[in-house]
Amino acid sequence: MNVGGSRGARGSMVGVTGESVRRRPKNRRAQIAATSAVAFGAAGYHGVSMEDIASGLGISSAALYRHYPSKYALFREELLRVGQSFTTAIAAADEGESSAERLRHMLTGLLGSTVANRATVALVRWEGRYLEPADRLVLDQQRASVLGALDEQLAVLRPELSAAELRLLSTGMLGVITSIADHHAALPARTMTTLLGTACLSLTESELPPAATISEQSTPVEIPDSFKHELLLRKAVELFHEHGYPNVSVEDIASAAGLSAASAVYRFYRGKSDLLAAAFRRAADRVSGAIGPAVAGTPDSAAALDMLIGQFVADTFDERALAVVYYAEFGHVPAEERAVLRNIQRLSVQEWARLTREVRPELSAAEARFLVHAAFAMVIDLGQAFGDDPIACRARVGFLMRRVLLG
């Protein structure tokens, strides 16, 4: 379902002289937007040049600059266009419907917009931070408008919930919906919409566990200064999360780790990309490494899933920065590492999906994989949105993860 790029169409007409005249297509800006969305989605904002986009369209850079003055202008327009498409989808629900019907139509509209703009939704999720402050504010306001509209309908359906609990559910729903931008698995659009729409509604249909009464903030891990290898990795992940991989230098990492010079980093890692790859291997190994013990140490698939869910929520909340970096910076991992990491992730998702299908045999293998991706994305989004707020305690987030997977 990836948004496909399109090449500039060329038409011609033959005049009285018989010479062919190139005709500029009327939808050139739409073609540019579609091609740039795919390029940005594949390589990230920093990994794409105007020359790359022009080449994908089969036009010159000069022709591209006639439509857009800069790469940033293209990036900004695409992200805010998709943000606006989400607010439009929310507003399209009929005021005359019941709240339950309006909520269903809102979810369907948001899913349709996500499917139609899959590549750009990935940018909104992970690279919106590269917008300039005024533009980031617009994007944040668009998201707040969507979440507020979902809150409003949920408040009618679940009047006993607090405003913070309503926002917990609406944030979870939006995470499920936009999760399809985090992977490349395919399902027919109607099947996908039904599957994820039903998963969203399942979040609203049961009583939430109690909020935590004490802080669940993780105890900071103390790393001895002598463990420079580990200290460099942790500081690098923190910097990549805060500033984005392209905006962090080896010098920045060395300084954060208390090293006197960037050259000291190279005693432990070959470079910045090697640090990123090491962080990714750690994240992937945590998810894959939990599967064997969970299956071996429990009586059935439901119990194994319970154990895996608890572990996934704990790991994600303990290492929030690593969880985001894993998704946001994948395109910067060296090519030889990407294939290995993709294979680890594929096998992990496949095992989670197998356990899910053993509890819910009505699901196809592809549907189960979509739900696993949706559950992962929702947990990461809730961890980022709520931090250590007891409203989004681990027990509640684990409960919501079970609802997504098991209905």
Provide an overview of this structure.
This protein has 18 helices and two strands. It has a two-stranded antiparallel sheet with strand order 1-2. The two termini are 24 Å apart. It is globular and about 55 Å long. The protein is mainly α and 407 residues long. The protein has two domains: 1-208, Tetracycline Repressor, domain 2 (Orthogonal Bundle); 228-406, Orthogonal Bundle (Tetracycline Repressor, domain 2), CATH 1.10.357. β1 and β2 form a beta hairpin. Mean pLDDT is 88; it is low at 1-22. Residues 1-25 are annotated as: Disordered. Keywords: DNA-binding. This is TetR family transcriptional regulator. It comes from Nocardia mangyaensis. One of its GO terms (molecular function) is transcription cis-regulatory region binding.
Write the topology of this structure:
Elements: E1 11-14, E2 20-23, H1 28-43, H2 50-57, H3 61-67, H4 71-91, H5 99-116, H6 118-127, H7 133-157, H8 163-178, H9 189-202, H10 228-243, H11 250-256, H12 272-289, H13 291-296, H14 301-318, H15 320-328, H16 335-359, H17 365-386, H18 394-406
Antiparallel strand pairs: 1-2
Helix pairs in contact: 1-2, 1-4, 1-6, 2-3, 4-5, 4-6, 4-7, 5-7, 5-8, 5-9, 7-8, 8-9, 8-17, 9-17, 10-11, 10-12, 10-15, 12-16, 14-16, 14-17, 14-18, 16-17, 17-18
Fill in the keyword field for this structure.
single chain; 407 residues; mainly alpha; Tetracycline Repressor, domain 2; two-stranded antiparallel ribbon; 18 helices; 2 strands; disordered N terminus; HTH_TetR; HTH-type_TetR-like_transc_reg
